[in-house]
């Protein structure tokens, strides 16, 4: 992406120069009779010099590679010396037009004015560039942050536990060897799940109906492994079904349930998906596996990052002795900024 170039608008250059030219003639207003010719010539000389200082400083401003944040003493001195020469020439022009004025005092006044204008414009230009640099640093930091989140989000969208595929293939092998009548359906559900993975990997959000549909395919694959050891109930209104959700959010949460809890015929794991106020809730009974290593919460942090990145909302995690629940903000609409 091409970097923006530091510029000062012509409108600002001309307006500031005109304002200075008018201010330089203010002392003449107090004189009686009012010297109109002197006021006009004085204003024109100031205008020409102010424009010269603006454009000289802009065109001699160091390029992006050599530009520094601090003052350039060399640049300022060069501008002052050249300004003295230009002001001397303008003072001579003024003397030719207004031959009745005394050249010495006028020359001193004109040169002093030139130095003040030169220093003032250089300082102003430096402040403008400082502001520009600060703005660009802020933009760059936001871009880096956005790129980092995009890269992280891209990984999250493609996150499907490889152990799930390994376990599913082992389950399929067992089903085929035992000539299970559900083998073909298992293959179709597994195919649907991975087709969904490929189709959704580049999407930020998908309809909740699509996510619930794939969860049913995912549940079928889990039941092939755990049979009646796992149970999932869904209670979501039709309006909420038309809301949006990041792909694989429910899949990751259900996967976490089976990963951290006992799933068996003797102790079935019950998972519930329902809505509560402005949240979609995924809830499961707590039945920790023996020797279970403490969770790193990375899966929940990943999901939270997705919500923060996409809609600037956070998920809620609640837990007591019996139940663990994750509350996902319901996303009614979304527009990518």
Overview of the structural elements:
This protein is of the alpha+beta class. The protein has helices at 10-24, 26-29, 36-59, 73-97, 103-157, 162-177, 183-200, 208-226, 238-241, 249-260, 298-311; strands at residues 206-207, 230-235, 244-245, 269-276, 279-285, 316-319, 323-329. It has two domains: 10-156, no CATH class; 158-329, Heat Shock Protein 90 (2-Layer Sandwich), CATH 3.30.565. Helix 5 (103-157) crosses helix 11. One of its GO terms (cellular component) is membrane. It comes from Siphonobacter curvatus. This is Histidine kinase.
Offer a few descriptive terms.
11% strand; alpha+beta; 337 residues; rod-shaped; Heat Shock Protein 90; single chain
Helix content: 55-70%
Number of strands: 7
Domain count: 2
Q: Beta fraction of the residues?
A: 5-15%
Strands side by side in the biggest sheet? 2-4-5-7-6
Apparent shape: rod-shaped
Q: Which oligomerization state do the chains in this entry correspond to?
A: single chain
Which value, in Å, is the CA radius of gyration? 37 Å
Quote the distance from N terminus to C terminus.
18 Å
Poorly predicted spans:
none
Briefly note the structural class of the backbone.
alpha+beta
How many H/I helical runs?
11
Q: Overall mean pLDDT score?
A: 79
CATH third-level topology of the largest domain: Heat Shock Protein 90
What's the order of the H and E elements? HHHHHHHEHEHEHEEHEE
GO molecular function, one term: phosphorelay sensor kinase activity
Keywords: Kinase, Membrane, Transferase, Transmembrane, Transmembrane helix
Domain Signal transduction histidine kinase internal region: 151-227
Protein name: Histidine kinase
